[in-house]
Amino acid sequence: MAKRIAYRKKRQNRFSMFLAAIVVLMLMVVVAVGSISLKEKLAEYQQAEQALVEQIAIENERKVAIEEQEKYTHTNKYVEEMARKKLGLVYEDEIIFRQDE
Fold first, then answer.
1. Cα(23)–Cα(88) distance, rounded to whole angstroms?
2. Residue 30, φ and ψ in degrees, nearest 5
3. What is the pTM of this model?
4. Cβ contact 63:57 at 8 Å
C-alpha cells in the first residue's frame, strides 16, 4: 500500500508540474502578444511625435516670418510703400509716367 501511495503522489506531482508548465506557457504567450501590441503602439506614437516635431518646426518658421513682417510694418519704407499703393501719394518733385490703356 505504501508503494501505491508513493506512486499516486509521484503521479500527482507530475500532473501538477505539467499544469504549472502549461500555465507558465500560457502566460508567456499572453506576454508575447501584449509585447507585440505595445511595439505597434510605440511605432504609432513615434510617427505621431515625428509629425508633431515637423509641425512645430513649420510653425516656428511661420512665427519668425510674422515677426519680421511686424518689424517691417513699423518702418518708414513700409508706410511709404502703402501710401504709394493704396493712396496713390507721391513726392512733390517726383514725375509719374502712366500708361494709357
1. 88
2. -60, -45
3. 0.55
4. no
Residue the block writes with cell 513699423: 74
Three-state secondary structure of the chain: CHHHHHHHHHHHHHHHHHHHHHHHHHHHHHHHHHHHHHHHHHHHHHHHHHHHHHHHHHHHHHHHHHHHHHHHHCCHHHHHHHHHHHHCCCCCCCCCCCCCC
Spatial separation of the C-alpha atoms in residues 60 and 68, rounded to whole Å: 12
| Residue pLDDT, tens place only, 36-54 | 999 999 999 999 999 999 9
Measure the CA angle with vertex 54, ends 66 and 48; round to 5°: 135
Quick one: residue 22, left, alpha or beta (phi over 0 = left, psi -120 to 50 = alpha)? Answer: alpha
